[in-house]
Amino acid sequence: MKSINKISVCIATYNGEKYIVEQIESILTQLPDDGEIIISDDCSTDDTLNLINSFNDKRISIYKNESRNLIKNFENAIKHARGEIIFLADQDDIWALDKVKKMLEIFDKGFDIVVSDCEIINAEYKVVVPSYFKAIDSGSGFIRNLVKRNSYMGCCMAFRTTVKEMALPFPEKIPMHDLWIGMLGEINYKPYFLDEKLVMYRQHENNASDTSLGISKYSLWQKIEFRIIILYYLLGRFFKYKFYNN
Questions:
Q1: What is the rounded CA–CA span in Å between residue 57 and residue 37?
Q2: Superfamily (CATH) of domain 7-244
Q3: What are phi and psi of 213, to 5 degrees?
Q4: Which terminal CB of the chain, N or C, has fewer other CB atoms within 10 Å?
Q5: How far apart (Å, rounded) are the C-alpha atoms in residues 115 and 155?
């Protein structure tokens, strides 16, 4: 199988001035010359955009989003991605120096979605969860991820553009973008869980997404509703995609 020639890294930003420079630096050091970082910014009011522009790197493109919604912000970034492989990244994490290399090696083996492990750190860089995979018993499997807990953590994911084509546009009521993409992978593509910690996920008081390992903020009925919604949209997208592509 041929090697991957171009990758896109999609970052959704909103008032991320505190950590965004460190995150982008950790990506640029391993991004090839024909790679790109796609920033979708949700009308930040702090210095986020000025800091991003200060890199003055032709590989970085910024697009405006006005939904004030994390899912729509990521959708906007992914929509503009041109790479054969699309990585998702949060604005406040740090990538391992060999993240891109190790994940592309898995894609070269024929997989369509790759999810790496990560360690969770706090604002002071102290490791609070050594392995997210072990903490929630991550892994592939449709029922496992639909009924138990979502293993598809966005900041640890990458996927082929063929997955993007099926995933977009995002349905209006999905509970989270990474779950939507991952579950599409379960029913139509080949996912792979890479047992290496390639991201330092920074957990702090202003996280846009919730990766808490404690008690969920959602009620039992809300959890059931989320699963019904995602199953409904998954079945609809699967049959629509198959019908129009066969």
A1: 10
A2: Spore Coat Polysaccharide Biosynthesis Protein SpsA; Chain A (3.90.550.10)
A3: -100, 5
A4: C
A5: 9
Query: CB within 8 A of 132, min separation 6: which ones?
Result: 117, 118, 119, 120, 138, 153, 156, 201, 211
| Closest by Cα among 131, 108, 107 to 118 | 131
Which residues lie closer than 8 Å to 207 by C-beta, 6 or more apart? 92
Measured in degrees and rounded to the nearest 5, phi and psi for residue 50 equal: -65, -40
pLDDT in tens, the chain (246 residues): 455 779 999 999 999 999 999 999 999 999 999 999 999 999 999 999 999 999 999 999 999 998 889 999 999 999 999 999 999 999 999 999 999 999 999 999 999 999 999 999 998 999 999 999 999 999 999 999 998 889 999 999 999 999 999 999 999 889 999 999 999 999 999 999 999 999 999 997 665 555 555 556 778 888 889 899 999 999 999 988 877 665
Residues comprising the chain, all counted: 246
For residue 106 the two structure tokens come to 């898995």
C-alpha–C-alpha distance, residues 98 and 102, integer Å: 6
